[in-house]
Amino acid sequence: MFGALLFKGQYLARDPPQGLMYLILARDAASVEESWIADLYSAALKQATAEEATRALDHVKHWIEQFRSGRKE
C-alpha cells in the first residue's frame, strides 16, 4: 500500500519512481493469494512515464545492492 500511496501522492509527497520501486519489491515478494499487489503495480505502471519506470528500476537495483552488502542508507 505504501508504494501505491507514494506513487499517487496520497497523504505524502508524490514520488512515482520510489512508489513503483516499493510496488515492484512487494509484487516480487507476494504470494499467489496476494494478487491485489500485482494489480496495484500494474495500475501504477500504466500511469507511469517511461522515465519514472526506468528510475524505479534503478531504485530497485540500488535497493538490492544495499541489501546484499548489508548497508542501510
Describe, in plain words, how this protein is organized in 3D:
With 73 residues, this protein is an all-alpha fold. The chain has one domain. 74% of the residues lie in helices and 0% in strands. It contains four helices and no strands. The chain has helices at 2-8, 16-29, 35-47, 50-69. Helix 1 runs antiparallel to helix 2 (16-29) and helix 2 packs across helix 4. The longest helix is centred in the last third of the chain and has 20 residues, at 50-69. The radius of gyration is 12 Å and the shape is globular. The two termini are 22 Å apart. The mean pLDDT is 94.
Quickly count the helices.
Answer: 4
Strand content: under 5%
Overall pLDDT score: 94
Number of strands: 0
Rg: 12 Å
Q: Spell the H/E element sequence.
A: HHHH
Most strands sheet: none
- How many distinct domains? 1
Residue runs with pLDDT of under 50 for 5 or more positions: none
| C-alpha end-to-end distance | 22 Å
Helix coverage percent of residues? over 70%
Relevant terms:
4 helices; 73 residues; mainly alpha; 0% strand
Task: Give a short summary of the structure.
This protein has 73 residues and is mostly helical. The protein contains four helices and no strands. The protein has one domain.
